[in-house]
From TrEMBL:
This is glycerophosphodiester phosphodiesterase. It comes from Gemmata palustris. InterPro entries: GP_PDE_dom, PLC-like_Pdiesterase_TIM-brl. It catalyses: a sn-glycero-3-phosphodiester + H2O = an alcohol + sn-glycerol 3-phosphate + H(+). Belongs to the glycerophosphoryl diester phosphodiesterase family. The keyword Magnesium does not apply. Pfam families: GDPD. It comes from the Bacteria.
Amino acid sequence: TDEPKVFLPYTKPTLIAHRGASADAPEHTIAAYELALKHGADFVEPDLQMTKDGVLVCLHDTTLERTTDVAKVYPDRVKEIRGKKTWPVAEFTLAEIQKLDAGSWKDAKFAGARVVTFQQMIDTVKGKAGIIPETKAPEVYGKLGLNMEKALMEALKANKLDTPGADPKTPIIIQSFSAASLKALRKDHGCKLPLVYLLGAGEASKDELKRTKEFADGIAPNKALVLARPGLVADAHELGLSVTVWTFRSGQTGKFKSVREEMAHFLKELKVDAVFTDNTDQFPRK
Ligand code: G3P
Ligand code: CA
């Protein structure tokens, strides 16, 4: 038929480990990624930033202070940005960043955990789960002469993961809040991998979905947007867009009694295709 084919690389309700098993281990550390695999994650999510010397590292923030001891190790390298003391990732080389402790902020038992490069993340997950890298703040790096999309495609190519189905055990989906980043991947870097556009609150009319379809294969809406906009999942599916929703975490479950119940509602009643969750051990399998 001429019905658009829904892009669904999933064979079952899909568990995406958000920053690894980040409820139980420090986000984006090897410990968090390994725990996600132990919990049976279908995909593991690395957010990507870039070091001063152009290496992709797995960090959510553009700055180092929330998840490392950078303030203690490099007190003199502080920048004051809009009245806030901060240590931007892009001002440190990989070697400098690798001196930092990325585990203690979560719990003393994780002391000594390191910031992970994208390559180390791939080495940990490849053959065991899919990977859904997010190009984070690519415009910040662009202004510094660093090209995040190029670096991402080169890294995937070096690991023979740059085409759909290249490693059936390690499907790759690229996600971004930046439409420009997704478009650059397709147009400038010949990326044929599935692309997912992240949506915050207050977006996603049917017309917007149609425009999204021109450069992406799926949407990843905030869960509040899915609740606030009835018909969003059906409209997306009708256009052939997959729907992967974020972020499910214990303690932020709204009217739901538990994160498990909340994820079950989204997967079974609202028919979303996948959930990003910090609480990977709470994923409802039945
Ligand atoms: O990528 C899905 C979700 O992680 C988006 O929000 O800020 O946690 O990267 P954030
Ligand atoms: Ca993310």
